[in-house]
Structure formats: structure tokens, C-alpha cells
Amino acid sequence: MLNGLWLGFFLVAALTALSRWLLGGDAGVFAAMVESLFAMAKLSVEVMVLLFGTLTLWLGFLRIAEKAGLVERLAWLLGPLFRRLMPEVPAGHPAIGLITLNFAANGLGLDNAATPIGLKAMKALQELNPSSTTASNAQILFLVLNASSLTLLPVTIFMYRAQQGAADPTLVFLPILLATSASTLVGLLSVALVQRLRLWDPVVLAYLVPGALGLGAFMALLAGLSATALAQLSSLLGNLTLFGLIVLFLVLGWLKKVPVYETFVEGAKEGFDVAKNLLPYLVAMLCAVGVLRASGALELVLDGIRWSVLQLGWDTRFVDALPTALVKPFSGSAARAMLLETMQSQGVDSFAARLAATVQGSTETTFYVLAVYFGSVGIQRARHAVGCALLADLAGVLASIGVCYWFFG
């Protein structure tokens, strides 16, 4: 899928450039495309310089949190909820612990730890599955919640905004928090509707009702604030949460007798390895997106959407952020490239760039998650997993648009 998407970017760019030359006499389009290749390659390296530092720093602190038992503690707290949402999984089965560990790791931004834990959880669920090729209800719920983007601390997006010169990199913290809550809630409700899960179970309600009421009260509080006050609050909470978690990790590590310095260095080394492996993918996708933009193909599609939106009498500023939303279900690296390109072409603090960052933080690479998680256990029939996961993605995109108009409109 990723091979076809990447090749398609170049082929569409080539056809568009040829049509502009042969039909419009614009021979300069080829020079613009070659120039874009080198510009995007340079941008990739610039992004990587900060990415090395950010991943090294963050994975160092996250390793302290792991050693201090924070992830295991979260798993213990969430265990009763998932036992009710997956009734076919016996109480005490290892899958429950692995599932809660996976979600806890995702919530803390431990992507490198979340994926292998998630694959182990899927394998444990497959042991309970009567079919070797058809996804069980528990597997579908687990996958859809993974595909609904559970990360609540989008450090990588803050890093991209910082690298592009944002006045306040954490300004999108609250919009992402609200949008990702919407995508996860829609993912859960859609699966519950299809599978007829008993969401009114007292234990489930004990988890969901306080969270929903808290989110509702928080949104009611935000509703009374001006756009300037919303931006200031988002900045304050984003920075406070980020630094507060670092302090929490260090204090918990110290209380648990974890050698915090040595543990930080251990995690930081892993961050360095993760970062250097990302450079080829970043170069590949950024160059493909750059050529697509320089050829005029991307602008042609956006102009068509913009015209349709104008006919409906709507504001069109959100259209420039749609490339990130359109490719995110297929490829995280392509969406990341679209986000960076939007920041470059529109300005990092433009409405489009802020919206693209919010979309990136509240949606997931649905087809990649489906391929990796189901492919690891030989599942061929996904049943309602694809529909529910895409519905969650759509909710994340629509919520991102609404929230960004609310905060930055």
C-alpha cells in the first residue's frame, strides 16, 4: 500500500507537469519540481536535527517512568474496564494486562513500547479466537481503540512546530486533546453498537461517566473564554502538563529507588537509534509531497474542494489542511510530510498549519494498524473493524476542524 501511494505521488506529479507544459506552455514547472526535491531533502535533515534531540530527551524520561512502574500501575487501574468491554476474555487472562499496558503506553506517548505490547496482546486474543482467519469481537474493539489515536501528549507534534519556528509549540495541546477524545469516543460507541456491549454496566459507567462529565464541564468552562484566552490556556496547560510529567517521572523514579540518571541515558540511547532510522522515510515522503505540490496537482485537488465549499457558503480556510487528513489513514510518514509541507507553505502559525497539526494528533494510520495487528496473527476477515476505525478517524478530523475554528477562528 505504501509503495503504491509513494509511487502514485510521483506519477501524478509527472502527469500534471506534462499537462501544464503541453497544454499551458509552462516549461518552468520542471525546474520547480527539481528545486522542490532538493528543498525537501534539506528540510528533512533540519527536522531530523531537532528530532534527534527531542526523541533522545523524551525516551530518556519515559524509560524512568517505565522502571518506576507507572505503566503497570495504569494497567492495574484500567483492567476492570476492559474485562467488561471484552466479556469473552476470561478474568485474569494475560490479554487483559497486555491490552491495558498497550493503552497506557499509547497514552503516555510510548509508541516504541506500545506496538510490541499490542502485538503480544493481539496474539493472546487470537488464542481465545475460535476462528483462525476471522477477527473476534475483542480483537476488533482492541484494534479500533488503537486506531482511534489514544496519545494524549503529542510531543512529536510540539517538536515539529518548534522546529518550524512556532511562537508557542504547545498551542495546539487542548485542540488535540478535545479532538482525540472525540475520535476515541466515536470508535468505542460504534463498536459497542455493533457488538451490543453493555455500556450501562456499573463498572463501565464508573469509568466512562466521570470522564464524560469531566470533559463536558471542561468544555463548558472553555465555552466562556475568548479565542485569545483559549490560546493562552492551551499554552499554559500544554507546557504545565509536559514539564509536570517530567517532574512526576523523576520523583516516582527516585521514590522507587530507580537510578534516574543511568536509566535516562539508557532510554536516551534508544531514542537516538529510533531517530536515525526515521531519516530515510522522512526524506522519501517529504520529497514525494514536495514534487506533488510543485507540479500543481495538490493545488488542483484543493481548488476543486475549495470551490465546492464556496458553493455551500462555508469558510474555506480548513481546505489547506486537508492533505494531512486525506493521507493519514494510509501512511503516518506521508501525513507527517503533508503536515510539514503545510507548515512550510502556509506558515507554522497559520490556521491551516494549526489545523493540520491537530488532525495529525487526533487521527491514526488506520490501514497500517489493521495490516500490522491483524497480519501478525493471520486474520483475513476484519468484519466491522475497518468501518468503525474509519468512522473514528472521520470524527477526529471533523472534531479537529470544529475545535480549531473555536480556538483559532
Keywords for this entry:
mainly alpha, globular, transmembrane helix, Spore maturation protein SpmA, 409 residues
Shape: globular
Mean pLDDT: 81
Give the number of DSSP strands: 0
Helical run tally: 17
Termini gap: 36 Å
Please state the CA-atom Rg, rounded to the nearest Å: 22 Å
Sketch the topology as an H/E string, one letter per element. Answer: HHHHHHHHHHHHHHHHH
Strand content: under 5%
What would you call the structural class? mainly alpha
User: What number of domains?
Assistant: 1
Measured as a percent range, the helix fraction is over 70%
Main beta-sheet annotation: none
* Uncertain regions spanning at least 5 consecutive residues: none
Domain Nucleoside transporter/FeoB GTPase Gate: 51-159, 276-379
InterPro entries: Gate_dom, SpmA_SpmB, SpmB
Protein name: Spore maturation protein SpmA
Pfam families: Gate
Draw up the topology in text.
Blueprint: H1 2-24, H2 28-67, H3 70-85, H4 94-107, H5 111-127, H6 137-147, H7 155-163, H8 173-195, H9 202-223, H10 227-255, H11 260-295, H12 297-311, H13 322-327, H14 332-346, H15 351-362, H16 366-375, H17 385-408
Helix pairs in contact: 1-11, 2-7, 2-10, 2-11, 3-4, 4-5, 6-8, 6-16, 6-17, 8-15, 8-17, 11-14, 14-15, 15-17
Report on this model:
By secondary structure, the chain is an all-alpha fold. It has one domain. Helix content is 79%, strand content 0%. The chain is built from 17 helices and no strands. The chain has helices at residues 2-24, 28-67, 70-85, 94-107, 111-127, 137-147, 155-163, 173-195, 202-223, 227-255, 260-295, 297-311, 322-327, 332-346, 351-362, 366-375, 385-408. The longest helix has 40 residues, at 28-67. 46% of the residues are buried. The model has no long low-confidence stretch (mean pLDDT 81). The chain crosses the membrane at residues 47-65, 140-160, 172-192, 204-224, 236-255, 278-302, 385-408. One of its GO terms (cellular component) is plasma membrane. It holds the Pfam family Gate.
